[in-house]
UniProtKB/TrEMBL annotation:
Any one GO molecular-function label of the UniProt entry: transmembrane transporter activity
Record keyword Hydrolase present: no
Gene3D superfamilies for the chain: MFS general substrate transporter like domains
Transmembrane segments: 21-37, 49-73, 85-104, 110-133, 145-166, 172-189, 250-274, 281-303, 309-331, 343-364, 376-394
Entry keywords, A to Z: Cell membrane, Membrane, Transmembrane, Transmembrane helix, Transport
Protein name: MFS transporter
InterPro entries per record: MFS, MFS_trans_sf, MFS_Transporters
Species: Chromohalobacter moromii
High-level lineage: Bacteria, Pseudomonadati, Pseudomonadota, Gammaproteobacteria, Oceanospirillales
Length: 410
């Protein structure tokens, strides 16, 4: 999911531009597909270069940290210099990272590729979200929420298929994505700029994350839902394929990537289906599904049943999308417009740290406890955090009062 950017400098269109919205949504899908494409290959990298699960999760965490820093630094840059220059620069950076992936022959090069990819994805995230809002103020925010999740899922699936059935398993998927981005980069020249450049670009690069006082109480009530959903996402993107292969006993990248495919794609469907629900209801549904989904997933691990494990993953995917959406919609309307971008930055700091730090802890734990015991503990923590958020939402007596200066949330 992506943070909305301020659109105070955006030229109003007389009517929604569906073609432009479609272009930006497909580009967002491509970027996030590239971000998840290495996941089905991790097992091959481990076998070829002989590194531990701890290093595997460190590679994933390096991507997340780079993305977070880039997002904090460049989040409002496109409001000053325009959407197209930022998007064009990110496309070049992403193609560069795919080239490093293509030529990588060691763990160090793999980590460098992930860092470059994190920077490119972080830079483009808010620019694309804002561009979609510029293109269609009604459908744009919905597409900005769904496209990243769908991209992560479809990227893992396509990579799994190519790695399993196509030649050059460590190279072809990156060449395919690079060509797709080159084509989309050429098409960017046909897209109309929606922002009038204005001064302040350098000043906008100062990271700013802030939680306004009226938001702190409501955020504390839903923060465990955010942590649990993103912690599950981080685990599935780093250790998920290894877990599926261990449970099934089948060393097949396509089978292994199904957990990475199901969680975000079902999450995207959840966001689309439940977007009209009140935030409290979305949090209740999301955390309830996370509890049930994690319980079923862990039963699948215990019974050594891939079907049960993936069923639990799909159910948890409903919770992933709903809990995140409900938590965001709980806190964002409470901040005035002048503080909303800083709040969004703080919100995403919580999200990405939950995904990366907890996944790293899981990776270290596998070295000492083994993968399956670590999965039981990790899943138990996710379920417990979800239960805390569920109880908090269930016992909430009144909806927090909206800030009078706020607009409706994107």
């Amino acid at each position: 999911m992506t943070p909305p950017s301020s659109t105070g400098t955006t030229d109003a269109y007389p009517a929604p531009r569906l073609g432009q919205l479609t272009y930006y949504a497909i580009l967002m899908i491509t970027f996030l597909a590239a971000s998840s494409a290495p996941t089905p290959l991790y097992r091959l990298y481990q076998t070829t270069w002989h590194f531990s699960a701890t290093m595997l999760t460190l590679v994933f965490a390096s991507y997340v940290f780079a993305l977070l820093v880039a997002l904090l630094v460049s989040g409002s840059l496109s409001d000053h210099i325009g959407r197209r220059p930022v998007v064009a620069g990110a496309i070049v950076g992403e193609i560069l990272s795919l080239g490093v992936f293509f030529w990588a022959d060691s763990l160090a090069w793999l980590m460098l590729a992930r860092i470059l990819q994190g920077i490119a994805t972080g830079v483009v995230t808010s620019a694309l979200a804002a561009a979609m809002l510029d293109s269609d103020h009604q459908r744009g925010p919905v597409m900005a929420s769904i496209a990243p999740l769908f991209g992560m899922g479809i990227g893992a699936l396509i990579a799994g298929i190519l790695v399993t059935y196509a030649p050059a398993p460590l190279h072809l998927v990156y060449a395919f994505l690079a060509v797709a981005l080159m084509v989309q980069g050429l098409l960017l020249g046909r897209i109309r700029e929606s922002v009038t450049p204005r001064p302040g670009a350098w000043a906008s690069l100062r990271p700013r994350a802030y939680i306004p006082p009226p938001v702190r109480g409501p955020l504390m009530r839903v923060v465990s839902a955010v942590i649990s959903s993103w912690a599950l996402g981080g685990f599935s993107l780093s250790l998920g394929p290894t877990l599926v292969e261990t449970v099934s006993g089948i060393h097949n990248p396509l089978i292994g990537c199904l957990i990475t495919f199901l969680l975000p794609c079902v999450g995207a469907i959840s966001v689309l289906t439940l977007r009209a629900k009140p935030p409290r209801v979305a949090v209740l549904i999301g955390t309830g599904c996370l509890i049930v989904g994690m319980s079923v997933l862990l039963l699948g691990v215990y019974w050594r049943s891939v079907a049960v494990l993936l069923s639990g993953t799909a159910f948890a995917g409903i919770g992933f999308g709903a809990a995140f959406m409900g938590a965001m919609r709980t806190v964002m309307p409470l901040a005035p417009p002048s503080e909303r971008s800083a709040l969004m930055a703080a919100f995403y700091v919580i999200c990405y740290l939950s995904a990366s730090l907890l996944a790293m802890v899981g990776g270290v734990a596998t070295q000492h406890m083994g993968l399956l015991p670590t999965t039981y503990v990790y899943g138990g923590v996710v379920a417990a955090l979800s239960l805390a958020a569920f109880i908090g939402a269930l016992t909430q007596r009144a909806t927090p009062r909206r800030c009078q200066a706020c607009d409706s949330p994107a």
